[in-house]
Design goal:
This protein is of the alpha+beta class and about 260 residues long. Helices cover about 25% and strands about 25% of the residues.
Length: about 260
Amino acid sequence: MDAESLTYALDLVAGGGAGLSSEKRAALRASLLLLRRDYRFEQVRFWGRIQGIHGPYYIAEGLGGDRAGPRSRLYSLNCVEWSLLPPATEEMITQTAGLKGRFQGDPSYEYDPTEKKGEENERIYEEEDQIDKAVGIIPRGAFVKTPLGPVHKNRNFEGLSLTEAKKLNSYFHFTEPVNLKNRTLLQKADLDPSIDFLDSLEHDIPTGSWSIQLERGGSLVVLRSLLWPGLTFYHIPMTKQYGYIYLGTGEKNIDLPFML
């Protein structure tokens, strides 16, 4: 998320800048630019903040040329100093899978071995990855998949029309598709393989896990996840402006199916 999008998203999600002082927001913008330079990322985006009991974790992602390729994830406690999160191994996923409750806010915190092993920074990576796979989204057409496989930003994307922007099927999960692979050839006949290569939100389970609203006189479309409270996506129809940000505790609303 570039500086303009970051400022817009913070103002949108919480009028006061999501609890970030003007100094911290300035530090965040400056440090993201330094991350891009120092790690030689093609792009760095601010993913969001996970609020722990004793303090928050600020999460950023470093992206390469293939936007659907592997991402480097980093965390900070102060929006200035950043540390790489260790990639999630199968062992780490197994160790952290059963952990529940709030994060402590201490990356070196070790969970009770009698419950589940692992340090909190390992859990941060796994939790962020899980949230991103479930609710990290993009508008239809914002990215294109080349015949050779890599995914790039669509330079011709000028935003969704207002009519399309109000439909859940106009938004895709920006992760490896699952439902799309199970569709028949007849169901895929009307799809454009260069832009319809991801799963749309309309098939999400449970049905009703997204809230979609028009705000600011219909000039802004906002989607909020009810499954992962704290995830907000926005898009200004007929423009290239869109993005999402997570500001929550890292806890899934497991009671949602019973609330709908």
